[in-house]
């Protein structure tokens, strides 16, 4: 089992405690990101050999909660949860390159590469190559998983996003 981290709204955490698991929800996907999320759901299903479902997002490294980008929506009660998961149930990708997918861009390793855009999106999972590219910068690892059972979760910190 590996340790991962997820940031969730407090009401989602409370619901997970009642139903016994944390699952993703399609209702929070912005319409402009539906194509990217559907693609990620298909990748999860194929690569993790699971039924298609909205992802639960996790981080490999504990997020720095002082970072403005981690806090979520201002004023919302939020929790940082520690998660113990079998790494075979987590599809890792690079945070920065995932934004290429979200914005419907081609993930290019080199300038003006002749590659199909949707095929290029699979490169977000090629962590080794991404991290070795001189101009790329630091890789920030994130992951998706279909379900996290309550016994795999530990509430570390509750906070209100500033």
Task: Summarize the SSE layout with pairings.
Layout lengths: L1 E8 H10 L1 E3 L10 H15 L7 E4 L17 E9 L5 E4 H8 L14 H4 L6 H6 L8 E5 L1 E3 L3 E8 L2
Antiparallel strand pairs: 1-4, 2-7, 3-6, 4-8, 5-6
Task: Specify the helix fraction band.
Answer: 25-40%
Overall strand count = 8
Q: Helices and strands, in N-to-C order?
A: EHEHEEEHHHEEE
Quote the average pLDDT: 90
Side-by-side strand order of the widest sheet? 1-4-8
Low-confidence stretches: none
Q: What's the domain count?
A: 1
Q: Count of DSSP helices?
A: 5
Protein name: DUF3841 domain-containing protein
Organism: Xanthocytophaga flava
InterPro entries: DUF3841
Pfam family, one: DUF3841
Characterise the protein shown here:
This protein has helices spanning 10-19, 34-48, 95-102, 117-120, 127-132, and strands at residues 2-9, 21-23, 56-59, 77-85, 91-94, 141-145, 147-149, 153-160. It has one domain (2-160). The strands form three sheets. A three-stranded antiparallel beta sheet has the order 1-4-8. With 162 residues, it is an alpha+beta fold.
Short description:
The protein is 27% helix and 27% strand. The protein has 162 residues and is of the alpha+beta class. A three-stranded antiparallel sheet has the order 1-4-8. The protein has a three-stranded antiparallel sheet with strand order 3-6-5.
